[in-house]
C-alpha cells in the first residue's frame, strides 16, 4: 500500500470516529511506530488533524471526504447539471481534445457535447461508459491504472504516465472542496496526482464547482487559485466570494 493511501484511510477514520490511537495504526497497517507518527505528522501539517498524546483527533468540522459516486449524483443535482451544460456549450469547439477527470459534475457535460470530431481522454470509469453512447461522434481514450473507490477513477503511476503522453486543448476538473486560500482540493493524494498531470498538459484549465463545495477543505491541494483559468459555479456562491476570485484575474462564470 502506498503511504498516501494509508494516510487517506487514517484521515477517513479520524473524521468518522473523531480520533485514532497510534496503536490502531500500527496494528491495522503493520507499520512501525515511527511510520505511524510520520503519517500523523503529514496529516497535521496539511491542517486536517491535531496530534495528541497517544494519537490524533479531528481538527475541522468542514472537511469533505469523497462520497460514493452514486451519492454524488444526488448532491446539488440542479446546480451540477447547469454548470456542466454551460461548460459544454461555451468552452468547447469542433475537433477539440479534452481531458475530463472522472467526477460526477464533469461527467454531466457529456450529453451536452454537440460539437463534431471531439476526442475525450479520461480517468473515470463511469465517464468512459457514459461517453460510449456517443461513439463514433466522440472518440474516447481511457487510461489504465489502479481503480479507486468510491469514485471509480483510475489513479497511480500508470494513470499519471498515460496523461503525460498527450496534450489537450482544455481540461475540465472538479474536487470536493474549494477555498480562496488553498484553491481546489481533493480527499485522495493519488487522485490529486493524476489531475495535476492533466492540468500540466492542457492549454486551458476549467474548474467546475457547485456552491456546496465552496469554503470546504479536503486532504490535499490539487490546484492553487492562481493556476485556474476559468471557474464555473452557481448562484449559491456569495457575491463577496465571487468578487475576491475576480480580483485574482480568474474568469468566473456564474450560472443560475
Main beta sheet, described? 7 strands, parallel
Give a count of the beta strands, DSSP E runs of length 2 or more.
15
CATH topology of the largest domain: Rossmann fold
CATH class of the largest domain: Alpha Beta
Number of helices: 10
Kindly report how far apart the N and C termini lie: 43 Å
Structural class: alpha/beta
Number of individual domains: 2
Evaluate the radius of gyration: 19 Å
Mean pLDDT: 90
User: Proportion of β residues?
Assistant: 25-35%
Secondary-structure element sequence? HEHHEEHHEHEHEEEHEEEHEEEHE
Helix content: 25-40%
Q: How would you sum up the global shape?
A: globular
Strand order across the biggest sheet? 6-5-4-9-12-14-15
CATH second-level architecture of the largest domain:
3-Layer(aba) Sandwich
What does this structure look like?
This protein has 256 residues and is an alpha/beta fold. It has two domains: 3-58, Winged helix-like DNA-binding domain superfamily/Winged helix DNA-binding domain (Arc Repressor Mutant, subunit A); 69-255, Rossmann fold (3-Layer(aba) Sandwich), CATH 3.40.50. The chain has ten helices and 15 strands. The protein has helices at residues 3-17, 22-29, 33-45, 69-72, 77-90, 104-107, 125-131, 157-164, 189-200, 239-247; strands at residues 19-21, 49-52, 55-58, 97-100, 118-122, 138-142, 146-148, 153-155, 168-173, 177-179, 183-186, 202-208, 220-223, 230-234, 251-255. A seven-stranded parallel sheet has the order 6-5-4-9-12-14-15, with helices on both faces. The chain has a three-stranded antiparallel sheet with strand order 1-3-2. Strand 4 (97-100), helix 6 (104-107) and strand 5 form a beta-alpha-beta unit. The radius of gyration is 19 Å and the shape is globular. The mean pLDDT is 90.
Amino acid at each position: 500500500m502506498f503511504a498516501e493511501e494509508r494516510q487517506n484511510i487514517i484521515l477517513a477514520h479520524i473524521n468518522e470516529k473523531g480520533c485514532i490511537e497510534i496503536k490502531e495504526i500500527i496494528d491495522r497497517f503493520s507499520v512501525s511506530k515511527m511510520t505511524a507518527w510520520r503519517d500523523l505528522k503529514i496529516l497535521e501539517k496539511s491542517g486536517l488533524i491535531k496530534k495528541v498524546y497517544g494519537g490524533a483527533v479531528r481538527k475541522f468540522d468542514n472537511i469533505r471526504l469523497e462520497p460514493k459516486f452514486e451519492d454524488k449524483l444526488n448532491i446539488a443535482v440542479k446546480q451540477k447539471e447547469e454548470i456542466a451544460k454551460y461548460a459544454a456549450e461555451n468552452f468547447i469547439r469542433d475537433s477539440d481534445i479534452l481531458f475530463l477527470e472522472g467526477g460526477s459534475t464533469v461527467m454531466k457535460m457529456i450529453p451536452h457535447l454537440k460539437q463534431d470530431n471531439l476526442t475525450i481522454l479520461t480517468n473515470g470509469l463511469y465517464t468512459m461508459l457514459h461517453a460510449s453512447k456517443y461513439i463514433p461522434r466522440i472518440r474516447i481514450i481511457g487510461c489504465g491504472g489502479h481503480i479507486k473507490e468510491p469514485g471509480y477513477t483510475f489513479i497511480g503511476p500508470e494513470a499519471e504516465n498515460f496523461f503525460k503522453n498527450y496534450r489537450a486543448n482544455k481540461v475540465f476538473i472538479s474536487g470536493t472542496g474549494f477555498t480562496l486560500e488553498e484553491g481546489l482540493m481533493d480527499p485522495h493524494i493519488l487522485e490529486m496526482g493524476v489531475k495535476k498531470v492533466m492540468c500540466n498538459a492542457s492549454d486551458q484549465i476549467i474548474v467546475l464547482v457547485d456552491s456546496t463545495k465552496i469554503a470546504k477543505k479536503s486532504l490535499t491541494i490539487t490546484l492553487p487559485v492562481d493556476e485556474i483559468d476559468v471557474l464555473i459555479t452557481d448562484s449559491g456562491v456569495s457575491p463577496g466570494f465571487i468578487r475576491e476570485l475576480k480580483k485574482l484575474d480568474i474568469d468566473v462564470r456564474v450560472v443560475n
